[in-house]
Amino acid sequence: MKNYYYSIFIILIAVACSTAKKGTKADPLALAPQWVKSTPIDRDYYHGIGIATKSSGSHDFREIARQNALSDIAGNISVNISSSSVLGQYEVDNQYSEYYKEKIKLSTQNYLEGYELIDSWENNDNFYVYYRLSKVTYERIKSERIQKALNQSEGNYREALAFDAKGNPLESIRFYIKAIESVKDFLGEDLRTDIDGSNQSYTSHLMAGLTSSLQSIRIVYPVKSIDVMRGERPEYDPLDIQALDGMDNPLAGLAFISRFSFLPGKNIESVTGANGKFNLNIGPVETKNKNEYLTSIVDLEKLVKGNTSDQVIRKLLLNLAVHEYILPFQIISPKFYIETVEENMGDIIDKTDVKTELSKLLSKDGFEITAEPSVCDYKITVNATSSKGTEREGRFSASLNGSFVCNDQSGRTLYRKTISEITGLGSNYKDAGQDAFTALAGKIRINIYPEMYKQLFTR
Predict the structure, then answer these.
(1) Cα–Cα distance between 76 and 106 in angstroms, integer?
(2) Which residues make Cβ contacts (< 8 Å) with residue 27, sequence separation at least 6?
(3) Nearest Cα to 401, choosing from 424, 425, 420, 423?
(4) Engineering a disulfide at 159: which of 87, 175, 178, 358 sits with its beta carbon 3.0 to 4.6 angstroms away?
């Protein structure tokens, strides 16, 4: 009997020990160490608590917990952006700053060194692990990393300066970007180094050099300005444009974006050939403005993408200012001469609704109307004649026929429209004929003039 009670006692002791190690079913964390329940606070250390579930059956739950603990440590390391850093000095928005901080937190975990395992604990469901990292150790390792990054970056910086001296902006830009990429994890820091005998902000100096190289790329237009008749193609069409470096050498394989102010919302993408040139097709210039322009700039997004795959660097460099080259366009407004020959029941009409309507439409669209046919660019001729229709119960009708023609200076017909059987009503034939001419003015406003405009200016 003694052996029986002794066996029961041993079993109870074993169960109690097992419960002490893995917690209780009523409260899984009842017997857990304090660090499991709340992360320790210590001004000398960064602390990381990692948890991994056992229920998945994975044999890697210990490694998962370790990685989670290191991620916790990295998350507790503050990422501050110094006002003296490149991110503080250049116009970088808050959205980018937050994006940068998150990326650096993720990057920090990959470079954590010197951390130590303090304890681990588990229950039936989860495995817990506790690591910590001395702040002094972290700062020492960080300083070593900064110095290593600076050494690598400065080698690329010297290459960039060498290409600057040769007037080769594309190669200098490439090495400036590589130099910035080398210190990307410390762009929020006030990195300083000796440059030209003085202690300067290093990354700001790199950005300034990169901007200078970008702005040394020149675009040369074949003319200083373009004069073009509205609705016509300019003399220089297509327009040959050349990109040159600081030594007047052509820059091949460089992407540009061009925009015509009279074609809003349309970006024209071009790449220079072996001779450093690209050309733009202009086409007819249709605008009511007297002054328009062409702008061409380096396609910064393509240039940056071609030199780095790092998203942090790409987002930063897209804030750089590139020089915009402008070619003015002087728009010459065509002069119109209007000639109307209108007969109402055999009588010539001196002042008609037709001529008045045409003058109003042309003036509204910015065209000049001249009284001298010898100086006009376009001549509009309207011939229209009314004739008697029918009479019924004191109401009279009239029918109007004729033509609408627009010629250029050489007499070439650009637009023609036959006017047929426009009807008018009145208390007599003359009034009916006048009503038909008023209807013709409305038809010109609604149908004929828009057709002519399209024919002349949207070819």
Answers:
(1) 12
(2) none
(3) 420
(4) 175
Peptide bond into 328 cis (omega under 30): no
Name the CA dihedral angle for 255, 261, 264, 265, rounded to a multiple of 10 degrees. 20
Structure tokens, 193: 């180094």
pLDDT at 329 over 50: yes
Q: Cβ(214)–Cβ(322) under 8 Å?
A: yes
- What's the pTM value of the predicted model, to 2 decimals? 0.72
> Which residue in the block uniquely carries the two structure tokens 């990381």?
48
Q: State how far the alpha carbon of 39 is from the alpha carbons of 30, 47, 128, 133, in Å.
A: 16, 7, 12, 13
SS3 419: strand
State both tokens at 177. Answer: 């970007």
22 vs 292, which has greater pLDDT?
Answer: 292
DSSP 334: P
DSSP 212-272: HHHHT-EEE-SSS-EEEETTS--SS-SEEEEEE-TTS-B--S-EEEEEETTSTT--EEEE-
Q: Of 169, 211, 174, 203, nearest to 186 (Cα)?
A: 203
pLDDT of 351 reads 74
- Domains of the chain, start order: 2-80+97-135 (no CATH), 219-300+323-332 (2.60.40.1930), 335-457 (3.30.160.150)
- Alpha helices (runs of H) in 111-167, residue ranges in sequence order: 135-165
In angstroms, what CA-CA distances link 391 with 206, 370, 425, 430? 91, 41, 10, 12
End-to-end CA distance of the chain: 115
CA–CA gap between residue 66 and residue 50 (Å, rounded): 6
